[in-house]
User: Fold MBL fold metallo-hydrolase from Streptomyces hirsutus.
Amino acid sequence: MTYSGRVTVGGSADVHELKDLMITKVAVGPMNNNAYLLRCRATDEQLLIDAANDADTLLGTIGDDGIASVVTTHRHGDHWQALAQVVAATGARTHAGREDAEGIPVPTDVLVDDGDTIRVGRVELTARHLVGHTPGSIALVYDDPHGHPHVFTGDCLFPGGVGNTHKDPEAFAALIHDVETKIFDVLPDETWVYPGHGNDTTLGAERPQLPEWRARGW
Assistant:
């Protein structure tokens, strides 16, 4: 089956099969949050990005092999509603951006800074600190050695714009700057984008809109 990145709450997961990594996307909760289960194909170790909601669905997706780690992309409550239950059931180590950890009511084992490496088995992900949606939001970049990069953006980048900065011009300026310099300026158009809500996109599809986003201020 071809991966589309289109999932619905209560519907089936969608699986993106790469040579070294399997990415399972599932939608959960009343705000249609995306959660992503990453599985190293060499070791079968797993990592979850955003235990957003519906612990039963997430644990069913994780399966009997469990997870070694769970990464929370940012402190907003819709991205960690199931975190305590998932950690209790799996014993996973928790990761979050250093500036957001205090806003997440589950202790963070690993405070993540810009450029840090997070591993799942033999696969390496690079954290990018993106300021503006929250003080400590992080994106995770997987630079696939067999193909194009993949980036998990939380709520910092979506099809059609950056994340909500609540009409705060300083927050928007910070976020658009970080998204441009740490994502668009260093990754190619083929980069696949996995956002915190809704459908996937690519940097190439979004890049032509950057001037429009800057001009409108959101």
Notes: The chain has a mean pLDDT of 98. The radius of gyration is 16 Å. The helical segments are 55-62, 83-90, 169-184, 203-206, 210-216. The first helix runs from residue 55 to 62.
